[in-house]
Specification:
434 Repressor (Amino-terminal Domain); Rossmann fold; 3 domains; 6-stranded parallel beta sheet; 12 strands; elongated
């Protein structure tokens, strides 16, 4: 039952706001405030909304140390971000999606950048062994990813951006790179291309297989000639891609159809071909994967296939929260479809 309220402007800003602070302002019992902050469905939606509104206004932040001692939970979701040189704004798009999904929950996001390929599972091990989070999100999966193996053995909640080949299923959100590659080849053949080429990631990554399968499926159906680069990949530095494309164009064996599964690779290849005197639209055609709006602004006539990384972040966070709240439920798996924007 509500007690006498204290005006919010009379609450001292010098001390850290507590649940008692919110109770004093709203006139609600501390137990009711506590349940409302936990989004307890037994508390009315209007009361939960009021409590959360006041909590934001006074700057209330849960005491995570006390929470962990009381419940064993941290209310923290950790996102491990690996470098994605081939995609512009990948990190920002994924983070914004995760944050949006967590807005109506008690979970807070902790971002862990990981820019070395040495001991790739190290951040995961530290988080689990030290109890630094209730769940994990990470990307750049490999076929038999050691992080997935470790987390599965520890029964620790996680969601991957990308699939693996483990027999035991796990939650993931992935982009249908097989269909992306297939649709790209078919578009280039439709434009009259006789030889197509695709830049692939390093073979250790699972999406290397998906891109190659989709590409070769279209090649077999159409009979078009094809080329796989041998000295560069999506993980190559932009200047290396520029030099590779320039050398290829100058060799006289330039493919007239080029597929770039990333924005940086598109700009690099276009730069190399252009510097060799080749003109897009007459000497060659291109299809590129787009995550941001940059490609549409720089080249409005380019055939793009979009990947919604913001939605991927939202889905992964939603899947992870569901997994934490319902540990007995099966894994949640979502395959995002390419968004085709051919001109």
């Amino acid at each position: 039952m509500a007690q006498n309220r204290i005006p919010i402007d009379r609450i001292s800003r010098r001390s850290r706001p507590t649940q008692q602070t919110i109770a004093d302002i709203t006139g609600l019992a501390v137990t009711t405030v506590s349940k409302a902050l936990r989004q307890d469905p037994k508390i009315s939606h209007s009361t939960r909304a009021l409590v959360n509104k006041i909590a934001q206004e006074v700057g209330y932040v849960p005491d995570r140390a006390a929470l962990r001692l009381r419940t064993g939970k941290t209310n923290v979701i950790s996102l491990i971000l690996d470098p994605h040189n081939e995609i512009l704004s990948f990190g920002n798009s994924m983070i914004s999606g995760v944050v949006k999904a967590l807005q109506e929950t008690n979970y807070h996001l902790n971002i862990i950048p990981h820019f070395t390929q040495d001991e790739i599972e190290s951040p995961v091990v530290q988080i689990v062994r030290n109890g630094l989070a209730d769940g994990l999100i990470f990307s750049r999966t490999t076929a038999l990813d050691e992080r997935v193996r470790f987390l599965t053995e520890k029964h620790f909640p996680f969601v991957t951006h990308g699939r693996t080949e483990f027999t035991e299923q796990h939650s993931f959100v992935d982009y249908d790179n097989d269909d992306f590659a297939y649709q790209s080849v078919m578009r280039l053949v439709q434009k009259g291309c006789a030889k197509v080429c695709i830049l692939l990631p390093l073979s250790k990554f699972t999406f290397y297989q998906h891109l190659r399968y989709g590409f070769m499926r279209a090649v077999r159906e159409t009979g078009v000639d094809y080329l796989f680069p041998q000295t560069v990949s999506l993980d190559s530095q932009p200047d290396e891609l520029v030099e590779w494309a320039r050398t290829l164009a100058q060799s006289g064996e330039i493919p007239d159809g080029m597929i770039c599964p990333g924005e940086i690779s598109y700009f690099a290849v276009q730069n190399g071909f252009t510097s060799a005197g080749k003109k897009q639209g007459s000497d060659y055609h291109m299809v590129a994967k787009s995550v941001s709006k940059v490609l549409g602004l720089s080249d409005p006539g380019l055939d793009c296939i979009d990947e919604d990384v913001h939605q991927a972040g939202f889905l992964m966070a939603s899947h992870l929260v569901d997994q934490i709240n319902n540990p007995e439920a099966g894994p949640l798996q979502t395959l995002q479809q390419p968004i085709i924007k051919f001109k």
